[in-house]
Amino acid sequence: MSKLSVIIPAAGSGKRMGTETPKPFLKVGGKPILQHTIVNFVGLPQVSQIIIAASSENFSEVESICSSFTQKVNYFVIVEGGSERQQSIENAIQKVGDDIDLVAIHDAVRPFIRASLINKACEVAEQVGGAVIGIPSKDTIKQVDEDLIIKLTPDRASLWQAQTPQVFKTELLKKAYSAASNFVGTDDASLVERIGGTVKMIEGGPENIKITYPFDLKVAASILEGNHE
Ligand code: CTP
Ligand code: MG
User: Fold this and answer.
1) Is residue 19 within 6 Å of ligand 1 at its C-beta?
2) Rounded to an integer, what distance in angstroms lies between the CA atom of residue 211 and that of residue 229?
3) Phi, psi dihedral angles at 149 (to 5 degrees)
4) In the chain, count of helices (H) and strands (E)?
5) Which pLDDT belongs to residue 227?
6) What residues contact residue 30 under an 8 Å CB cut-off, 6+ apart?
7) How many CB atoms lie within 10 A of CB 52?
8) Which residue has a Cα nearest atom 17 of ligand 1?
9) pLDDT in tens, 87-138
10) Distance from C-alpha of 178 to C-alpha of 90, rounded to nearest angstrom
């Protein structure tokens, strides 16, 4: 079985949420969002380590969340995040063990990812190099100019919304991040695509929301209630 390292970026400031507490540490159903997210990975047999990138101000909270699980020493690794998500991931990549075959990157604020999709993404990444969970675009997407005049309507059938997890062979991911230098991508796959790596889309489900705005907390609470029925 391939050995998997999971990187969880949790170092954002949550500008769109607008709360004092960063999003991963807000509670849903009585537990921090980060804890719900970690639960989905802990105990999967292929996971060797979970690396969490956080701001040093939140290290003690991350430690307390990690200590609620009974994993072996060094299973959890906490690293300082950066000013951009890409920087947070880059810091985390430095801690990926030498024996790790695959790396999964998953937002701390997507607490409802299913194990079956994580497994599927790992299988596909093993085969082709990279895999991304996403959903077909429901809305028509428009490209606009600076005056908001519509310039292009790409065919919706070929448009997907990329989510996480995004899983890559370790070597490919490391190469993509070191080749990025000044390029800033909006996701990890874009860095791999840039160096010619193959990344396949895998259809996920509607529950894999990214908690972004205050409204998403209400959605998250209701998804959680549904899970407990
Ligand atoms: N993230 C990170 N380091 C950063 C920025 C983001 O680790 N410098 C993490 C966030 O904590 C989050 C994930 O990347 O788990 C996805 O980012 P996003 O939802 O955009 O969170 P924020 O950047 O915190 O929110 P906003 O963009 O509204 O400020
Ligand atoms: Mg952000």
Assistant:
1) no
2) 22
3) -80, 130
4) 7, 11
5) 60
6) none
7) 28
8) 12
9) 999 999 999 999 999 999 999 999 999 999 999 999 999 999 999 999 999 9
10) 9
If one counts every other C-beta atom within 10 angstroms of the C-beta of residue 150, the result is 9
E strand map for 72-198: 76-80, 102-105, 130-136, 143-144, 150-152, 160-169
pLDDT at 229 > cutoff 50: no
Res. 228: pLDDT tops 80: no
What's the rounded mean pLDDT across residues 177-200?
96
CA of 128 to the centre of ligand 2 (A): 28
What's the pLDDT at 73?
86
Q: Can you tell me which atom of ligand 1 is nearest the CA of 211?
A: 19
Instruction: Report if pTM > 0.85.
Output: yes
- Residue 183 contacts by C-beta under 8 Å, 6 or more apart in sequence? 191, 194
Q: How far apart are CA 89 and CA 71, in angstroms?
A: 23
What is the per-residue pLDDT for 43?
Answer: 84
Task: Tell me the two tokens of residue 73.
Answer: 């020493």
Which DSSP symbol is given to 148? Answer: -
